[in-house]
Amino acid sequence: MHGAIAGLRVVVTGSSSGIGRAIAERLLALGCTVHGFDRARATLAGPLFHAHEVDLADGARTDAAARACAQVDALVHAAGTLRVGNLGALDHASGELMWRVHVDAAARLADALVPSMAERGHGRVVLVGSRIAQGMPGRGQYAATKAALVALARSWAREVAPKGVTINVVSPAATATAMLDDPARAGSAPRLPPMGRLVEPAEIAELVAFLLSPAAAAVTGQDIAICGGASLPA
User: Fold this and answer.
1) For residue 190, what are the CA distances in angstroms to 82, 174, 209?
2) Which residues lie closer than 8 Å to 88 by C-beta, 6 or more apart?
3) Distance CA 230, CA 29 (A)
4) Model confidence over 167-216: pLDDT tens digits?
5) What is the pTM of this model?
6) Which of 34, 73, 124, 142 is catalytic?
């Protein structure tokens, strides 16, 4: 089924590691052309992969990178950063950084890329959120930025649904990526979902590939959990 997305031109942010890399790798395997946006050096290569070194916390550079890819068919915003802190000890610079990378970058990229999709009558946007958007102690600033992605997606989806463009959020629970080892989250261990293991990045990539496919044309404005049961009542 996912083979139907062969030939799509897709911008994938955070393509050098973690969830973003898994998504980019899967899309390449399915025959998509991938424009990987990352501030780190590219870790993928091949004739269908185009690396763009861009710091998504820098609005001007994000705008310029988006303009260079104005005719893509899809956007997957997977780049992310996590900082933790309790009330009374919040790092406001970290909060601003998360807002720029998660929310402001999403807005800049969508603003540059989605109108041309709508003009052509087809497009896909997937924003990678988080189950933490539901709230978690010590993660308020992070949760707020991920919750904002849901509000953006639902608002934009209503604007462009008549024009053949879908916009959704995929919200993973704790995922097996290097982010779990980030010193910035010391003292804030991930919670295993009821299935007893972390979500794998490849599992998220498969869901994203489906949302880019023609079979997902009726799915828009949704926040889709991939959480191993973490969202279920205790």
Assistant:
1) 12, 6, 26
2) none
3) 30
4) 999 999 888 776 665 555 555 566 787 777 888 999 999 999 999 999 99
5) 0.92
6) 142
